[in-house]
Design brief:
The chain has about 450 residues and is an alpha+beta fold. The chain has 8 helices and 23 strands. The protein folds into 3 domains: about 80 residues, OB fold (Dihydrolipoamide Acetyltransferase, E2P) (Beta Barrel); about 190 residues, 3-Layer(aba) Sandwich (Rossmann fold), CATH 3.40.50; about 110 residues, OB fold (Dihydrolipoamide Acetyltransferase, E2P) (Beta Barrel). The strands form 4 sheets. Strands 1, 2, 3, 4, 5, 6 and 7 form a 7-stranded mixed beta sheet that branches. The protein has a 7-stranded mixed beta sheet with strand order 10-9-8-11-12-13-14, with helices on one face. A 7-stranded mixed beta sheet has the order 19-18-17-20-21-23-22, sandwiched between helices. Helix 1 packs parallel to helix 8. It is flat.
């Protein structure tokens, strides 16, 4: 019997009664779903088939949310959590579920959401899940800091679930092993600095050209602090950069020379560099296979014009340009456009051009907007609804949509379907094991 939460006495607010609930399924965010007095109750941490004791914490007209207190009857898919910080850290929220069951749930959730808009949705549309390692897969993470004035200790870790508190962690089992091993020594050295009360976040990255760390500082470091950090970087063979209030980067090891992290794609034909703060997919293995699958589905030809919207630093554009006549990447973050252009130059890809544009705005005057052969979309969680309003000007034969939010993917799919496109393929990419997050790829053809 698993014990999860012990309610503390609340003298100012009457707590709701404890309820015994039977969980029937999971929602697409990984919360258990139960029924109570004709109302749907969402219980994070509960699994289908379980009888649990829970306490209502939010009540709305049609649904309620409850806090899991105890699992009375565990499901077969429940496993012991591996991370010692699991109950506090807001990062992973499905560690209590067997990995095979996690993947099956994500595929089913994706299929259900897409089935509401795609009339031809059946098992033949679903392709095999793209899966990889379930632990130590993250190549990048941002750790928050918080200086405790009472204890004079600088906490280093991740945000607690649903709060602004920092969980002072010692390890992270989904972070690359080399990065997880840095957390404790980094915490120790930061707590030895005179400037520990003025430090910001710490970004860790494992790249193909080494380990990188970026420390956010709000005041200039004193020479003694810089020397201590430099010794730490040399000891751990680390590219250590500091970033000031203006966003300027400075290396503490190589004065005047800043190396950037990079990774390779397209069977090492292209290299993709990125700056701290740039978005990159955190799962390097799944990202490579995702790019390969997108190119396979698009089947680019030498005489085609291909548009990559929300292109970032060129994650899809660079490999596509090795196979197509004309590739255009468009991105909303100016700094990433600058980096993407540099990546194209570094890889000698003269058939690749990048543009900056607000893809949620009026694009009618955009120089790059016009007839294309194929379209690739990789938007943020909000989706690409506004961009797809210009579909009639683009008229692509194929559309590959990569999504980190199946709800916005389903919504945007309706736009494509309304304009005559049919969903041909759909797959779940397990980019974020141990969490509820679902990455998906869909192929539409006219």
């Amino acid at each position: 019997m698993a014990q999860f939460f012990k309610a503390k006495p609340n003298k100012t607010k009457q707590l709701s009664a404890k309820l015994n609930l039977t969980v029937s399924q999971l929602d697409h965010l990984g919360a258990g779903i139960a029924q109570h007095e004709g109302k749907v109750v969402f219980v994070p941490g509960a699994l289908p088939g379980e009888t649990v004791t829970a306490q209502l914490i939010v009540q709305k007209k049609r649904f309620a949310k409850a806090k899991l207190l105890k699992v009375q009857t565990p499901a077969e898919n429940r496993v012991a959590t591996r991370c010692p910080h699991y109950q506090q850290c807001g990062g992973c929220d499905l560690q209590h579920m067997r990995i095979e069951a996690q993947r099956e749930h994500k595929q089913d959730a994706l299929k259900t959401l897409m089935g509401k808009v795609a009339v031809n949705m059946d098992d033949s549309v679903m392709t095999d899940n793209v899966i990889g390692e379930q632990w130590h897969y993250r190549r990048k993470a941002r750790l928050a800091t918080l200086f405790d004035k009472k204890t004079k200790h600088l906490q280093l870790g991740f945000r607690e679930s649903s709060t602004s508190n920092i969980v002072d962690i010692k390890q992270c089992d989904v972070l690359a092993k080399a990065l997880s091993a840095l957390i404790t020594p980094f915490s120790q050295v930061l707590n030895q600095l005179q400037a520990k009360m003025t430090l910001g976040h710490l970004e860790l990255t494992e790249a193909e050209n080494g380990l990188f760390a970026v420390l956010r500082i709000t005041k200039e470091l004193k020479p003694a602090d810089e020397e201590r950090l430099k010794e730490f970087a040399l000891q751990h063979k680390l590219h250590l950069l500091v970033q000031d209030n203006e966003g300027e980067l400075r290396s503490l090891v190589n004065e005047g020379n800043i190396d950037l992290p990079k990774y390779s794609l397209a069977n090492d034909q292209v290299a993709c560099e990125f700056s701290p703060g740039n978005f990159v997919q955190v799962n390097a293995d799944i990202n490579k296979r995702m790019v390969e699958q997108a190119i396979d589905w698009l089947a680019p030809q030498q005489d085609e014009r291909i548009l990559d919207l929300f292109c970032g630093v060129g994650n899809f554009s660079l490999p596509l340009a090795t196979q197509a006549a004309d590739v255009i990447g468009v991105e909303g973050v100016p700094e990433m456009v600058t980096q993407a252009k540099q990546n194209a130059t570094d890889n000698n890809l003269s058939n690749l051009s990048f543009f900056h544009a607000d893809l949620s705005a009026d694009l009618s005057e955009a120089s790059w907007l016009g007839k294309i052969d194929k379209l690739l979309l990789d938007p943020a969680r909000a989706g690409a609804f506004e961009s797809l309003q210009w579909l009639s000007k683009m008229k692509p034969k194929k559309v590959v949509y990569v999504s980190c939010n199946p709800a916005s993917l389903a919504r945007d799919s309706q736009v494509l379907i309304d304009q005559g496109y049919k969903l041909k393929k759909l797959t779940m990419l397990d980019m974020f094991p141990q969490t509820h997050h679902i990455e998906a790829m869909a192929l539409f053809e006219i």
